[in-house]
Amino acid sequence: MKTFFALLFPASLCLLTACVSPPPDVTAQVPLISKSTLSYSSAEILPEDLWASLNNAFQGTSIDSDYGSINVENTYISAMGHWCIAFNLTKTDTVESTKTLNPESKYYGQDRRACKNNETWFFISPLMTNYNGAIND
User: Fold this and answer.
1) What is the three-state SS of the chain?
2) Residue 5 has pLDDT above 70, yes or no
């Protein structure tokens, strides 16, 4: 019994000292958001003639609009509580596609985002472009 208590005391002392040790320092190698990031306050309202189509956008649907073909990849609720869609927008060479969003490089392509605030749909710029190994200052 004395041996048990003799071993219990050093073991409990080791456990207690582990609890008071500071955690290791952790640093990020990839910034989550660069300083030049656009925020929701700089989000641009999408043309009103797209709103009705976006209201009916669900994952896997494809919508033909005057601006091109919208392929909905995903729908979700944002952290701010907005209904959002992730989509690809492709210009089509048909007669129906008579309008263009400018600048084209911002709106057309893969992994675009739009969210709805009340009845208004607004375009969300990506938080971060592809990481190329360089750390942004």
Assistant:
1) CHHHHHHHHHHHHHHHHHHCCCCCCCCCCCCCCCCCCCCHHHCEECCHHHHHHHHCCCCCCEEEECCEEEEEEEEEECCCCCEEEEEEEECCCCCCCCCCCCCHHHHCEEEEEEEEECCEEEEECCCCCCCCCCCCC
2) no
